[in-house]
Amino acid sequence: MTTQPRPRRAPSGAAVLREDITDSLRAAVFEELAASGYGRLSVEAVARRAGVGKTAVYRRWPSKLELVIDAVSAVAALRIPVPDTGSLLGDVQTLLKILARALRHPLAAQIVPDLLAEAARNPDIARTLEKALRDTQRDITSQVFGRAVERGELPEGAGTDLALDLLTGPLYWRLTVLRAAPTPAYLDELAATIVAALRA
Amino acid sequence: MTTQPRPRRAPSGAAVLREDITDSLRAAVFEELAASGYGRLSVEAVARRAGVGKTAVYRRWPSKLELVIDAVSAVAALRIPVPDTGSLLGDVQTLLKILARALRHPLAAQIVPDLLAEAARNPDIARTLEKALRDTQRDITSQVFGRAVERGELPEGAGTDLALDLLTGPLYWRLTVLRAAPTPAYLDELAATIVAALRA
């Protein structure tokens, strides 16, 4: 979520190769998750897709569960562009557009419901997913709401649970549960509702 | 969704038995779905749980997919109590409480995410689920909103897509995705937001 690139020392050749394989394995996890779902995902299929042996997986992660949790955490830590349009309404409108695009992405549209289904049975996946979602939500909204407080658009400490859920809940319901696309008018009406709820 | 009991002729002994087995099989589907998930659910396990042979399943449904779709449709057609408190705000508050209770039910908490995950891969499940959700939403809200229009609390034709999504989206997000319980203050704030959005 930070916009600062992480400073890195020049890695050795072997370290580069190790990192490349880790990245290939993480990418392969997402492709396998989208194709098969968590229940049917096998470590062998992930290794095959990444062009390595099963040992390369088990050297990094003790089991399929750790492999998936690590891949999800890595994606959640990606930098999401935080809007800075100069007004709270503009920022909320932009956030909703970014979120709608992210939820429509074929990988997200398949993998998120899948992990949520698995989370209902597996407390480790549930905790990782919750933490990833909450941290992302908190990082982005603290910047957007913080600037709105500085501009005097919001009182100090604005941002109830409900205001945060309004940002994601209706859009998630429409796109992922009803599988319908929100119209531009829908997104504008939603943005106005969120800003009103934040100011209340 | 109707409150009228369906008129029925007295069935024969064999018909009663057939209906009993159908009901047992539907119940067994839900228990197996909660325990194993759609991907791992087997027709054999459903039959075993219902105390019948596999043939009894295949005589009714050609495959696991039709079996699950039928069970889901049967639940969606159940009568949900439609509140009639005398005010729009009161009805919305009651609806939110009913919905929060339904989403917290252990079977719903496991089966709904599971079917949504399967829907991302299977258009038949997706269509059945969407239809069940939309029909239920439309039946309940048309009664609640219709009475509010009669009382002069809402203009004719109120009830945009967004207003409907506000009823379910934030609560679904909080309970099923974040796995957190909404406080009474949260539910009151949400009800006020929905009524404001309906009147806008």
UniProtKB/TrEMBL annotation, chains A, B:
<dbReference type="InterPro" id="IPR050109">
    <property type="entry name" value="HTH-type_TetR-like_transc_reg"/>
</dbReference>
<dbReference type="InterPro" id="IPR036271">
    <property type="entry name" value="Tet_transcr_reg_TetR-rel_C_sf"/>
</dbReference>
<dbReference type="Pfam" id="PF16859">
    <property type="entry name" value="TetR_C_11"/>
</dbReference>
<feature type="domain" description="HTH tetR-type">
    <location>
        <begin position="19"/>
        <end position="79"/>
    </location>
</feature>
<keyword id="KW-0804">Transcription</keyword>
<dbReference type="InterPro" id="IPR011075">
    <property type="entry name" value="TetR_C"/>
</dbReference>
<keyword id="KW-0238">DNA-binding</keyword>
<keyword id="KW-0805">Transcription regulation</keyword>
<dbReference type="InterPro" id="IPR023772">
    <property type="entry name" value="DNA-bd_HTH_TetR-type_CS"/>
</dbReference>
<dbReference type="GO" id="GO:0003700">
    <property type="term" value="F:DNA-binding transcription factor activity"/>
</dbReference>
<feature type="DNA-binding region" description="H-T-H motif">
    <location>
        <begin position="42"/>
        <end position="61"/>
    </location>
</feature>
<dbReference type="Pfam" id="PF00440">
    <property type="entry name" value="TetR_N"/>
</dbReference>
<dbReference type="GO" id="GO:0000976">
    <property type="term" value="F:transcription cis-regulatory region binding"/>
</dbReference>
<dbReference type="InterPro" id="IPR009057">
    <property type="entry name" value="Homeodomain-like_sf"/>
</dbReference>
<dbReference type="InterPro" id="IPR001647">
    <property type="entry name" value="HTH_TetR"/>
</dbReference>
<protein>
    <submittedName>
        <fullName>TetR/AcrR family transcriptional regulator</fullName>
    </submittedName>
</protein>
